[in-house]
Amino acid sequence: QLVIDAFCLRQWEANYAGSRFHGTGVTQEMLESACNEYFTKSGGKLQDGYAPFCKHIFIPNTLSDQLKASTVSLTPELESLVRSGYDARTPKELPVLTRWVDVKDLPG
Asked: 105: helix, coil or strand?
């Protein structure tokens, strides 16, 4: 059975800046249930991540129309909005070079 790691709980916090579930109506229990149902139906296969300990499950969004991907296509129009910097997700991690576009800078 798949469960949400404690590291992921921040995605239900109102002040979390990344992809989040706060305000969508999707509870942790709903997400775990959807993941386990899809995992079982799809034959129980996980996708390899960037390291041997990292695995992924990709599921269709059937939980809420409030869930949005936190990605944008890098187009010539957005290139000038791209920022970069070193960031660590936790104080125990080494910072890595990342790039992003601030949502408040996006047109529309």
From this structure: helix
The CA-to-CA distance between both ends of the chain, in Å, stands at 41
Indicate the SS3 state at residue 55.
Answer: strand
Q: How far apart are CA 57 and CA 80, in angstroms?
A: 33
Q: Give the C-alpha separation, 77 to 3, whole Å.
A: 40
**What own/partner pairs with CB < 8 Å and gap ≥ 24 does 57-66 have?**
57/2, 59/34, 59/35, 62/34, 63/24, 63/26, 63/30, 63/31, 63/34, 64/24, 64/25, 64/26, 66/23, 66/24, 66/25, 66/26
Question: Each residue of 9-25: pLDDT tens digit?
Answer: 999 999 887 788 888 89
Which residue is it, tokens 């706060």? Answer: 22
Measure the CA–CA gap between 96 and 67, rounded to whole angstroms: 27
> At 41, is the pLDDT very low, low, confident or very high (cuts 50, 70, 90)?
very high
HSE at residue 106, side-chain half, CA atoms within 13 A, is 11
